[in-house]
Write a structure and sequence with these properties.
The chain is of the alpha+beta class and 249 residues long. The chain contains 14 helices and four strands. Strand 2 and strand 3 form a beta hairpin.
């Protein structure tokens, strides 16, 4: 038999002292089981209260976890398992029913976030996989990331690049842009198309002569022979005749 000796409010919870031990209960536990001073419970009844309290504690922790940002079902499941919650299935089922968890909504929210932050569809797919989203939702949301949205984002990224001049070969600059945009989650064909469409603007921001002179002087200072210098500058994308001219001067 378990007897309630005292109940004391402690912040957002209650410290309940019994003839056996002290327990920390949330208000919903107190209300649901009508816990009051001097009330008695059988051991079986009190174990049910403890089980409900444990579930309630984890549920409130999850609500706090969800309060910062939207989460996937798999994220919440892992959060509970890592904290040794034995009733994670019940909690997740409850959250889904209350529409606090929804992987379809989560996928579309991440889509809009990626578009706003100029991240491409490959990045989106990777993030959704990482969050444990089912392929059905992934494929559905990827169809929403249209070519128009992709091209619009790539054009915004190109506009940002055009703010600064570059002292290098155009080929090297093109490769740098391609690598950068691929790291942001865009595929090569879309990138290549946009760079080709904006090539004239990009060429205007590249000073190949200054870049060639700078790289030539670097290699010269390291005492590379002429043939090695020509090879290295060629690999950087400079025109062979321009390289020969600066080497022979």
């Amino acid at each position: 038999m378990v007897k309630i000796l005292s109940i004391m409010k402690k912040g957002n919870s209650y410290l309940v002292t019994t003839n056996n031990a002290e327990h920390k209960f949330t208000e919903d536990v107190i209300v649901k089981h009508i816990i009051s001073k001097n009330k008695k419970y059988s051991d079986e009844e009190f174990n049910e209260i403890l089980a409900f309290s444990n579930k309630s504690d984890f549920y409130n922790k999850v609500l706090n976890f969800l309060s910062y940002k939207d989460r996937s079902i798999d994220e919440v499941k892992n959060y509970l398992i890592e904290r040794n919650c034995l009733v994670f299935d019940e909690i997740i089922f409850s959250l889904i029913n209350k529409k606090l968890l929804n992987d379809n909504r989560y996928s579309h929210n991440l889509l809009e976030n990626c578009i706003t932050n100029l991240k491409g569809p490959i990045f989106l797919k990777h993030e959704l996989k990482k969050k444990g989203i089912d392929d059905i939702y992934i494929n559905k949301v990827l169809t929403k990331y249209s070519d128009d949205r992709i091209n619009n984002n790539l054009n915004i990224l190109i506009d940002k690049e055009l703010r600064n001049a570059k002292s290098m070969s155009f080929n090297k600059y093109k490769n740098q842009l391609t690598s950068k945009f691929m790291r942001l989650g865009y595929n090569y064909s879309n990138i290549n198309q946009i760079i080709s469409e904006r090539k004239i603007e990009l060429l205007e921001r590249v000073d190949e002569d200054s870049g060639l002179e700078l790289e030539y002087n670097k290699l010269l200072s390291k005492n590379f022979p002429s043939d090695k210098i020509i090879q290295k500058l060629t690999l950087q994308g400079y025109k062979y005749q321009n390289i020969k001219n600066i080497v022979n001067n």
